Amino acid sequence: MGFPFRLGKKLSQSFVHTQSGHFKPSSSRKLTQILHKSKNQSNALRVLDLITPKPTFTASLRQGHLRLIQGVLHSDSDQLSNPSFPASHSSIQFSNLFDELFDSSSVDSHSYPESVNFDASVISHAISSCGSKRDRHGGIQYHCAAIRSGFVANVYIGSSLISLYGKCNELKNACKVFDEMPVRNVVSWTSIISGFALEWQVDVCLELFSEMRNSGLKPNDFTYASVLSACTGSGALGQGRCAHGQTIQLGFDSYVHIVNALMSMYCKCGAVEDALYMFENLDGKDNVSWNTMIAGYAQHGLPLQAIGLFEEMKTRGVEPDAITLLGVLSSCCHAGLVKEGRHYFNSMVEEHGIQPELDHYSCIVDLLGRAGLLDEARDFIEKMPIRPNAVIWGSLLSSCRVHGSVWIGIKAAESRLLMEPRCASTHVQLANLYASLGCWDEAARVRKLMKDKGIKTSPGFSWVEISNEVHRFRAEDSSNPRMVQIIGVLDSLADHMVRLKTSGCELQMQEEEDAS
Q1: Model confidence at 153, in pLDDT bands (50, 70, 90)?
Q2: CA–CA distance, 134 with 127 (Å, rounded to integer)
Q3: Of the ranges 278-282, 337-341, 510-514, which one carries the lowest mean pLDDT score?
Q4: What is d(CA 133, CA 147) in angstroms, rounded to the nearest whole number?
């Protein structure tokens, strides 16, 4: 695939001058601070011990894995002891197997010649399958099987375990497995980088990427796909361009899945023109390519371009899927194209044989709600063939707040709280709706319920990238050392907006007087 000069000029500033081609790693102190602040990663600092050689499968390694599993079971103890979740036969077998493993002191895989007939590749595949389905419980059972068979030190099983725990939001445990591995390969490093990429922690991903290259291993295309995913979620355009440059150096820029990841990164980071250039020059476009570009147009409020690309996709004989239609509906929603949105929603079954999912229904509810058609949105929800989720009720609630439809808003809030009883924002909106009707007792009841349950609202935050560094700002946070200057600029902008509004009103009044 060709590389545009205008895009190459941007990239040259971020990677050509670095002769080694490595990312510029953040300092150890900075990475330490990031890991300390990460949720559920109090022990993730162990991942910094990356190059120290580990012994082969020993009793201490075996016990370390058993303690990891024991910690997971301990975190689930409240749910397992709940009478509404009776223990299944597999749960009982799992508990007995764990007790047997923990009591045993043997670590030799040949100690179980009759009862164990496992193969490392079979266990690795089974763990990977559980990871793909986010089946943590099943994955832990295969983790026990790996310990019992003595294959837990196998590099492929270790990599599968890292991927499993990372996909199941158990990043701390993924780090523990990675730290205990006696041997690591490219798959191991890619798995742990991918785990942090799922949490959008681009700084940690780049630090791990740098350590991986320093260890003498060469990253593959999947490694770069994970790094680009982290850049996408964090909005780190500068780091994403650097990754793009390295994929060109290594010849990965012709790989369809790499180009798709780059397109997604550029769209999410605001460089939709660069994404479009890559799309137009990509040979062998697949559904992901079309879907990524359509979704990028939708995100940037370009519904005509999204719909036009969708029609072109059909003209070229590419069959759209559920994700394609979701992007089209999203573009109609953001632009308020009610008629077009209804048409494409109905065409899912009639023309393409695609059954709408909850996300598609959510788009229609949001589309109708934004247009002020709240009664129609409520009726649409009530006639859905599948049970609406909290997102759908939350979308209707937000529209009711904007358009002042109190009673429908109360219904939406109460329905959402049945599904998410600890949602702080829904409690606050419900209390405000009651207060707008003068139902002060009901409003006080909701706020008291929040206090009794210890429910608190989480402050929102935003971020901006300056000089390849992502700065995050949280509501009511005054820890930024330049807060005085920031507030000064905000006050100046606010005064400027007031003056513009005042001058605009005066100009309109003058025009009306002249016309009369």
Answers
A1: confident
A2: 10
A3: 510-514
A4: 22
In sequence order, what are the beta bridge partners of 465? 470
Distances from the Cα of 215 to the Cα of 49, 55, 162, 193, 201, angstroms? 12, 17, 19, 15, 21
Mean per-residue pLDDT, 84-106: 44
Distance between CA atoms of residues 133 and 17, nearest Å: 43
Range 466-474 contact pairs with CB under 8 angstroms and sequence separation of 24 or more: 467/238, 468/14, 468/24, 468/236, 468/238, 468/239, 468/242, 470/202, 470/203, 470/234, 470/235, 470/236
Buried b (16+ CB within 10 A) or exposed e, 90-105: eeeebeeebeebbeee
Structure tokens at 61: 């390694």
Say if CB 309 and CB 293 are below 8 A apart.
yes
Distances (CA, A) of 254 to 194, 289, 319, 413, 493: 21, 13, 23, 49, 45
Q: Are 306 and 297 in contact (CB under 8 A)?
A: yes
Per-residue pLDDT at 318: 93
With tokens 């999204």, the residue in question is 306
pTM: 0.69
Rg (CA), the chain: 27
∠ Cα 480 48 55 (to 5°): 165
| Other beta carbons less than 10 A from residue 43's beta carbon | 14
Predicted pLDDT at 508: 63
Q: Collect all residues with Cβ–Cβ distance below 8 Å to 50 and sequence separation of at least 6.
A: 208, 211, 212, 215
Each residue of 415-440: b (16+ CB within 10 Å) or e? Answer: bbbebbeebebbbbbbbebbeeeebe
What are the tens digits of pLDDT across the range 159-216?
999 999 899 988 888 988 898 888 899 999 999 999 998 887 888 888 899 899 888 8
Higher pLDDT, 296 or 67: 296
Sign of CA dihedral 422, 425, 429, 434: positive
